[in-house]
Amino acid sequence: MGTEQGGEPSGPSGLPVVGNIYQFASDPLSFYEEVAREYGPIARYKLGGTEFYQLSDPELVERVLVHQNDKFRKGEEYRRILNPVIGNGLLISEGEFWRQQRHQMQPAFHPEALADYAPIIVDYTRRLLADWRDDTVRDIHADMMQLTVEIIAKTLFDVDIRDYEANIADALEAVMDRSEKRLERPIDIPDSVPTPGNRRYKRALSALYAIATEIVEAHDVDGDDVVSRLLRAKSQVEGLDDEQIQDEVVTLLLAGHETTALALTYTLYLLATNPEQADRLGAELDENVNGGPPSRDVIEDLPYTKRTIREGMRVYPPVQSVIREATEPVELGGYEFAEGTAVTVQQWVLHRDPRFYERPDAFRPERWSEEFRDSLPRFAYFPFGGGPRRCIGENFAKLEARLVLATIAQECEFEAVTDELSLSPSITLRPDGAVKLRVRRR
Known about the structure:
About 50% of the residues lie in helices and about 10% in strands. With about 450 residues, it is α+β, with helices and mostly antiparallel strands. It has a domain at about 1-85 and about 320-380: CATH 1.10.630.10. The strands form 4 sheets. The chain has a 5-stranded mixed β-sheet with strand order 2-3-9-6-4, with helices on both faces. A 3-stranded antiparallel β-sheet has the order 1-8-7, with no helix packed on it. It has a 3-stranded antiparallel β-sheet with strand order 5-13-10. A hairpin with a 3-residue loop joins strand 11 (about 425) and strand 12 (about 430).
């Protein structure tokens, strides 16, 4: 509980036992915004049996993620949701084991590694485009999910995921869907109850780990990808065995593809609904890429392409909020919070805050001038989190998103068939249903 001279942050009143769950469930994103608007930068609400303190001020976010990060952990809420899927994978591990995991995986995301990945990203995107026909309707979210999982498997594990019998994109989708429902429900339906959803989840999880096992067994210590590095480290890192390496493979497949797929899905949708910005992007690519495959060097010199991705991730951040749990008493904004307090930091609220963004609901890549970026508080924009637990694959994701966008936008324009996005915020900000765009060859 937070206290300040005997008081605590205010927030919306709720019902006994369930708290604010009904207000939250009807429209979570509007709920976040209303709480920030009505109750200020630190506000309290309750979902089921868990009390949360929402932080919607950049300085407070920076204190939690950076300056006082040693007083917070990802906590039990993340573990409850994700432990059944990824075990003790990098995304939810803590302490010294997490530091050793990150150390072993970090070389896969160094600049020299990214240079090797760039041609793979472009080749796999062109392979996808070969299946697209002019004047047809595509579920762009399904396409981006499939593409990004193929890219992550090839770049990090040196495997072509299409060679595996199971449909890994469908398996990942089923697992994420089940995991997110855990967050929405104050009380879980046990996995042992044979509901249709549980049966689908178990089949998907079994398929996912069968693929992870095959990937690990196909590697040895002599390779240079992530799996080989982890195999070499087994004798040096306590707790790192083949089962843990399988957990890391599933973690990277899951976390390494979905957020980039979401960034691309929403950016392509925004371009389809903002033809002026789409034309500016196409003109930049026509002038600088000349119809050939975009390269890593070329993409770094395309300001509007980079701004387009940046703005897409502002309007629709792939992760809309982050939960942290205090590991000891901590002071924030004049309030004292006890050990175990759950706080949320809000990308969705801050990315659309009119204090920092003129016309925050509008898609305007051109707003991202160097002067504008320099004027922003550090955590008014933080799609990849911050501090020591900042996304390990941030630079990879940025490069991948820019190269995929440039490769697609060179050849295609889009018209939105899905009139309005329906969003399903949970662990990530996912679309609720297909995102249908009509493809037109340029």
